[in-house]
Amino acid sequence: MNYDFVVLGALGMQGKIVCRDLLEKGYFVLFLDREKPLNMDLLKRYKHSSSFIQADVMNIENLKRIIQKSGANIIINCAADDVNLQALKACIEANVHSIDLGGSEIPMTKRQLKLDGVLKEKNLIHITGCGSVPGIGSIMLRHAAEKLDKIDTIEVGFAWDSNIKEFVVPYSIENITYEFTYPATVLENGRFIKKSPMATIEERDHRAIGKQKCFLADHQETYTFYHFFRDKGLKNVRFYAGFPDHSFETIKTIIDLGLSEYKKIEFLKTKVAPIDFLTAVLRRRVHPQGYKEKECLWLKIYGEKDGEEKLIEMECVAPTLDDWEDAGCNIDTGIPASIIAQMIKNDVIKASGSFAPEVVVPAKLFFEELAKKQMFVYENGQIINNPEITVPLVDRTRSKK
After folding, report:
1. In this structure, are residues 10 and 52 in contact, taking their beta carbons and an 8 Å threshold?
2. Hey, which of 140, 185, 354, 399 would disulfide with 116, CB 3.0 to 4.6 Å?
3. Which residues contact 69 (CB under 8 A, 6 or more apart)?
4. 134 prior amide bond cis, ω within 30
5. Is the pLDDT of residue 396 over 90?
6. DSSP for 7-39?
7. Exposed, middle or buried by CB within 10 Å (0-12, 13-18, 19+), for 394?
8. Coil, strand, or helix at residue 182?
9. pLDDT digits (tens, 9 = 90+) for 80-94
């Protein structure tokens, strides 16, 4: 069987969302993960258009062989972000296009973007950060940036909440504990500096969420926004992570107990990293009956248009979809990756090189696809991607106060 896509980390939350969306659209998908499936429902339901291979993404030679044998020319990397660079190198050697969900390790993002020349020579495209933030937030920036002559400051982040106040891991627990503990990279007056996340806690108000604690976190947007928009005068970028109180306190307890540590400990003659054990346990956790989430991805872009100071506020609200309850608001990470991969497959995105979404993904078409999954985008308070709502085509930038 020849496949349209290979999905790395296919058994994780995001991987399952991506695979399901692609299969429902009629594509052939090869699942690849280092773990064995605990639940084969999706593979059974689409047994004629999918299959599974157990493999380690870090084994480049083996991964390259699997990719070449699959017949696919686009790889979607949903594995943990610490394998992004290795996966990209394997894709280059296998001569295929690739995307990933991005992450928090800015040094790795820099190394990915430095492969731009190699990718151009081979006429390949790689896009890093194709999820929610980075991803949706990045493309909202592209939409807004086209309306400004200059950009001075960008604030970007997420906030989410659930109807049942029980802890359900919202996305990769490895990434979450990293955001809570690793010094946040901040662009301040044109210089990159570090700040301690837990020393920056503040309360902000967000659409569909309300008031919530948030803090500065280390995210690749701080670098990619500056990398691609410094010519517009960008001097300040700050990324904020927001969590509801019940989740915030549970995550803090996990960290305080040492369950997020990577150093292996010996237990019953076996060495295991606490974070690996925690990840495996949380993969088995079932959502409470009736559990639903919602998330607000947001940006504030301060700049100028025709010599006048302007502020553009962008938001995307993601719900829990019917029949997608187990995914919660994680649809806003998996679905964008599926959309962008399909854009490459269908030659909507043709440029070769190494990119972030803010410079290569067409915003209007992307927003239209989000609307099909009830993810609506707001510009200064007005929905711009719901075909049922007619919005006058006027300049909605507003003067900065």
Report:
1. yes
2. 354
3. none
4. yes
5. no
6. EETTTSHHHHHHHHHHHHTT--EEEEESSPPS-
7. exposed
8. coil
9. 888 999 999 999 999
Interaxial angle between packed helices 106-113 and 84-94, expressed in degrees from 0 to 180 and rounded to the nearest 10: 20
Reported as a single tens digit per residue, the pLDDT across 316-326 is: 999 999 999 98
Task: Report the chain's mean pLDDT, rounded to a whole number.
Answer: 93
Tell me if residue 269 falls in helix, strand or coil: coil
Q: Which two tokens stand for residue 248?
A: 């915030």
Encoded tokens for 144: 């807004």
Q: Give the DSSP H/E element, type plus range, for residue 341.
A: helix 331-345
With beta carbons less than 8 A apart as the criterion, state whether 241 and 146 touch.
no
Whether the pLDDT of residue 227 is over 50: the answer is yes
CA distance 217 to 139: 20
Strand segments (E) across 259-348: 265-267, 270-272, 293-305, 308-318
CA dist., res. 171 & res. 178, Å (int): 12
* Single-letter amino acid code for the residue at 346: N
């194709």: which residue's tokens?
130
Task: Give me the torsion for CA of 339, 344, 350, 355, rounded to 10°.
Answer: 70
Is the per-residue pLDDT at 148 higher than 90? yes
pLDDT digits (tens, 9 = 90+) for 6-33: 999 999 889 999 999 999 999 999 999 9
User: Would residue 152 be called left, alpha or beta, if left means φ above 0 and alpha means ψ between -120 and 50 degrees?
Assistant: alpha
Torsion angle (degrees, nearest 10) of CA 12, 16, 19, 22: -140
Cα angle for residues 195, 200, 201 (degrees, 5° grid): 150
The model carries a pTM of: 0.94
In the chain, the percentage of residues whose pLDDT exceeds 70 is 97
Q: Domains plus CATH for the chain?
A: 5-131+332-361 (3.40.50.720), 136-329+366-399 (3.30.360.10)
Q: Residue 35: its pLDDT value, please?
A: 85
